Amino acid sequence: MKSPDTSAAPTLDPVAVLKGLASLRRLTGTYPAGHPSIVQKTAEILDALARQFRVSREVRIDIIHGQVYLDGVSFDRDVQGQAPIINELVALGVDSVHFRDGVQAEELLAAAECLWQQERSDASSLDAQLAARGVRSISLGRLVPLDTRWRAQQWPDAPTGPLDPAYAESLVRAQETFEQVSNGKRLDPLTIGDLVQLLLTRVARSNAALGQILAVKQYENLTYAHSVNVSLLSLIIARHAGVDDATLAAIVEAALLHDIGKTRIPLDIVKKPGALDKRERKIIEDHTTYGAEILAQTDGLRPLTPTVALEHHRAVAGAGYPDLQNAVPNIMSQLVSVADIYEAITGARSYQDPTPPERACLILARLAGDKLNTALVKAFVKAVTPFPMGSLVRTNRDEFGVVVETNENDPLHPIIALTESSFEAPLTRLDTSTRDDAGTYVRHIVETLPAAESFDIRRFLPAA
Ligand SMILES: [Fe+2]
User: Fold this and answer.
1) Rounded distance, CA 226 to CA 213, Å?
2) How far out from the chain centre does Cα 184 lie?
3) How far is the CA of 202 from the centre of ligand 1 (A)?
4) Which chain residues have CB less than 5 Å from ligand 1, an ion?
5) What does the alpha-carbon distance between residue 108 and residue 114 come to, in Å, rounded to a whole number?
6) How far is the CA of 32 from the centre of ligand 1 (A)?
7) Ligand 1 mean position to 393 CA, how many Å?
8) How many CB atoms lie within 10 A of CB 57?
9) I need a surface site. Which of 23, 355, 373, 379 has the fewest CB within 10 A?
10) How far is the CA of 83 from the centre of ligand 1 (A)?
């Protein structure tokens, strides 16, 4: 069986959905219920959503500073001409529209009518109005930093619970290095060289460590943990792309230091929960140029390390920051960008739960082309798979397991260690790609589960 072609996954245009909702609002205010224009518009919106529900149970569209986000990822296509429609909704106090699978035409109509009756910029009553009309699958509201409607969960700053020893050591060393640079000390190339060797020789060879980096992460990692993870993920992509050993070390070094410029950004901005304002966004964006500066001033690093720090937020099509006109980023920067985005979305954010890998792979596929290098996304998704090693999963037979090996030819059916729902210890090894006499799969994986803090991956996967 061929690996799934995630590039063919349905892609919802969130701007089209917002436009649809805004026109439905006007139509319900203009025509009587049941008018053909209303029926048609409702069907159009439901149709677009239905395609997306095949890959995720919820569609979250948020407008943050005039930019549209689909499931937490900036949607920067078709920006021209979308401003009036966005402003119309924002003026009504709505900058967050979430739809859940199973949404009905009546619910959509009720939401459009509530919006029509909404006169002032006050979204606080919208929830109550929707609830009163029995709307369960749509939420409309205002997205503001620290909005209490959002679960303001405090995530830990780094991985907790039992860690692979080599991975734990690399985190401690990276933390020390980043803290020293924050405190104004010079970056020491020898320390970096040692850390690169530790990552290449020990961490990368530990299945337990890789499992902890690839699976969904129940923490909001600070720059050093993010950097260690991105360097390992970059290494995985590079290995899969057939890169030679000397270049592998250069990639690990560049990925490890890609965000070093964040050491010059005030921590309250780096860690700010919720959306950043324009000034704060500009400050954060400067981490790319600061990083390039710090690295260019450090003797003994590899030549492309500053380049990757400068370019890792630039899109292959030339957009992104810093503004370098249409310069196409170096292939090494393109590679680190793929790892960077996967790492960021599979980790927690103050305002959002972590995205499980199966959805993160689809998000990468959606970004391939304009933003990310398609070949590198394919190499990554093929290597990581939607259910990467270390993932806690549930099967359609309500069995629980930990992915211990992926099937290269059948990425949706990995080998798992069956376990109890407490995920305490492995019971037996099971190949989920097994089929019955009729050629039908005996089981499927239906979801990824979050790991409890006590979960010890070393009981399931060999450590370094
Ligand atoms: Fe960055």
Assistant:
1) 10
2) 31
3) 25
4) 259
5) 10
6) 51
7) 30
8) 12
9) 23
10) 27
Q: Three-state SS for 176?
A: helix
- Ligand 1 center to 427 CA (angstroms): 41
Q: How far is the CA of 433 from the centre of ligand 1 (A)?
A: 38
Ligand 1 centre to CA of 329 (Å) is 14
How much distance in Å is there from the Cα of 62 to the middle of ligand 1? 22
Tens of pLDDT, residues 185-230: 899 999 999 999 999 999 999 988 888 888 877 666 678 889 999 9
What separation in Å is there between the alpha carbon of 312 and the centre of ligand 1?
Answer: 6
Looking at the chain, which residues constitute the CATH 1.10.3210.10 domain(s)? 165-384
- Taking CA atoms, 323 is separated from 278, 317, 426, in Å, by 16, 12, 51
Cβ atoms of residues 355 and 216 within 8 Å: yes
Tell me what pLDDT residue 80 has: 52
Please give the share of the chain, as a percent, with pLDDT higher than 70: 88
Q: Which long-range contacts (CB under 8 A, 24 or more apart) does 115-123 make?
A: 115/21, 115/25, 115/89, 115/140, 116/25, 116/26, 116/28, 116/29, 118/92, 118/93, 118/94, 120/93, 121/91, 121/92, 121/93, 122/93, 123/92, 123/93, 123/94
pLDDT tens string 89-120: 877 778 788 899 999 999 999 999 888 887 64
The contacts of residue 110 (CB under 8 Å, 6+ apart) are: 130, 133, 134, 135
Average pLDDT over residues 304-324: 93
- Residues 168 and 225: their CA atoms lie apart, in Å, by 10
Q: From the CA of 313, how far away is ligand 1's center (Å)?
A: 6
Exposed / middle / buried, residue 113 (Cβ in 10 Å: 0-12, 13-18, 19+):
middle
Q: Which residue has the higher pLDDT, 380 or 74?
A: 380
Residue 84 Cα, ligand 1 centroid: separation in angstroms? 31
Q: How far is the CA of 287 from the centre of ligand 1 (A)?
A: 7
Give 82 Cα–ligand 1 centroid separation in angstroms.
Answer: 27
- Give the up-direction half-sphere exposure of residue 325: CA atoms within 13 A in the CB hemisphere: 1
Is there a contact between 125 and 117 (Cβ–Cβ < 8 Å)?
no
Instruction: Report the CATH number of the 165-384 domain.
Output: 1.10.3210.10
- Of 71-80, 141-150, 294-303, which gets the smallest average pLDDT? 141-150
Contact 275, 284 (CB under 8 A): no
Dist. CA 337 → ligand 1 center (Å): 9
